[in-house]
Amino acid sequence: MTENVQTLQTAASQDVLFYVLNSTEPQKRERFLSKLLQKIQNEQRRADVRFENEHEAQRYDLTLWDTQPQSFIVHSVARQVAAPIQLYGEHIPKPCEDVLVNLHPQFPQEFSRYQRTIEILDQTDYLVQMGRERYKAYKAQGIEPTVHKIGF
Questions:
Q1: How many domains does the chain have?
Q2: Does residue 8 belong to any structural domain of this protein?
Q3: Is a pLDDT exceeding 50 seen at residue 7?
Q4: Which residues, listed in sequence order, are joined to residue 19 by a DSSP beta bridge?
């Protein structure tokens, strides 16, 4: 699977990206997320990652601690410590206002507080269906999301 991550540049206006993976495997979606977060970290940006719930944020936190030291992503769960990348369950009490990575199936109402919002989908029926709903919601807000199909 080719996993290219577009260069993250500060947008003059709000920017919404959909990365649609050609897979139904949760591990591939998670690997793509890790590559994306590495790119965000390398560009010295800040990001909030919104998971479906707190349990998923904590589980992914453990995954990040298992990575190789040279590719470690500096992060925290729900601002337990200061870090450029924060992992959250559904609610983000204090947005970083730079990059939002939304893995939650519901539309992120707080997306307007960020310069860039990134949605990562795979081919799971539920994620595709909910992704289409979020795509429509962004369009209703006057945002034209950019879609990148990965591995098709």
A1: 1
A2: no
A3: no
A4: 120, 148
Range of the domain at 83: 15-150
Buried b (16+ CB within 10 A) or exposed e, 61-85: beebeeeeeeeebebebbeeeeebb
23: domain CATH number is 3.40.50.10110
The C-alpha atoms of residue 111 and residue 31 are separated, in whole angstroms, by: 23
- Integer distance in angstroms from the first to the last C-alpha of the chain? 8
Q: What is the reported pTM?
A: 0.89
CB 19 within 8 A of CB 120: yes
Token pair of 29 as six digits? 């979606």
Residue whose entry in the numeric block shows the structure tokens 């730079």: 98
Q: Do 89 and 54 form a contact (C-beta atoms < 8 A)?
A: yes
Q: Tell me whether residue 9 is in a domain.
A: no
pLDDT digits 0-9 by tens, 22-56: 999 999 999 999 999 999 999 999 999 999 999 99
